[in-house]
């Protein structure tokens, strides 16, 4: 692990652990001074906000057992990084080493939105998606010049036409939330790709889960 000191409050709690690492520019690999936020997905509450070190990019954030978290790393001029930690069920609860790479908010760059949730074969956003949706609204408000595509993707199970339609409806659901919260429709595009652009092979349920996703791409 990195050299920054772990807070005493983390060491003292048996039900707490931490994630620790560095934040970098994904292209130059230079350390970044980024804001790292943890939200409790069940309440949409901000539970912690820290900043990575200006020179080294190091950060440390506390994770408590029994909660599901959305974690965001952000810096001016960069795409929002969305991460997910689910400790709501009993499981191994060890410290994590996690380096984070932020992509510049430039045309063609994209980010997977890991905290948007739908029931199987449905396009209605589940309530705990609100944390991510509100972070997206904030991100788009910070730079009014950005135009983005909300891209829906599925795995390869089922009929291609059904997957294409489902991915479009899910992308449209995100589009509708954003426009309903003040983001001009002229800055957005919703597009469903079905199973045409998998991140990984659809050879296991874990891989199929990765391919079922919403992405934000800079136009």
Query: What is the helix fraction of residues, given as a range?
Result: 10-25%
CATH-defined architecture of the largest domain: 2-Layer Sandwich
**Overall mean pLDDT:** 92
Q: What is the name of the CATH topology of the largest domain?
A: 60s Ribosomal Protein L30, Chain: A
Low-pLDDT residue spans: none
Strand content: 25-35%
Count of helical regions: 4
What would you call the shape? globular
Q: CATH superfamily membership of the largest domain, which one?
A: OmpA-like domain
Rg, Cα atoms, Å? 18 Å
Distance between the terminal alpha carbons, to the nearest Å?
37 Å
Main sheet: strands, sense, barrel: 4 strands, mixed
Sheet/helix structural class: alpha/beta
Number of strands: 12
Reading the helices and strands in chain order gives HEEEEEEEEEHEHEHE
CATH class of the largest domain: Alpha Beta
- Number of domains in the coordinates? 2
Task: Give your account of this protein's structure.
The model has no long low-confidence stretch (mean pLDDT 92). The chain contains 4 helices and 12 strands, in the order αβββββββββαβαβαβ. Strands 1, 4, 7 and 8 form a 4-stranded mixed beta sheet that branches. A 4-stranded antiparallel beta sheet has the order 3-2-5-6, with no helix packed on it. It has helices spanning 8-12, 130-142, 160-180, 205-211, and strands at 16-25, 35-40, 45-51, 58-64, 68-74, 81-86, 96-97, 100-102, 110-113, 148-153, 188-192, 213-218. The protein is globular. It has 2 domains: 1-104, Immunoglobulin-like; 106-219, 2-Layer Sandwich (60s Ribosomal Protein L30, Chain: A), CATH 3.30.1330. It has 219 residues and is an alpha/beta fold.
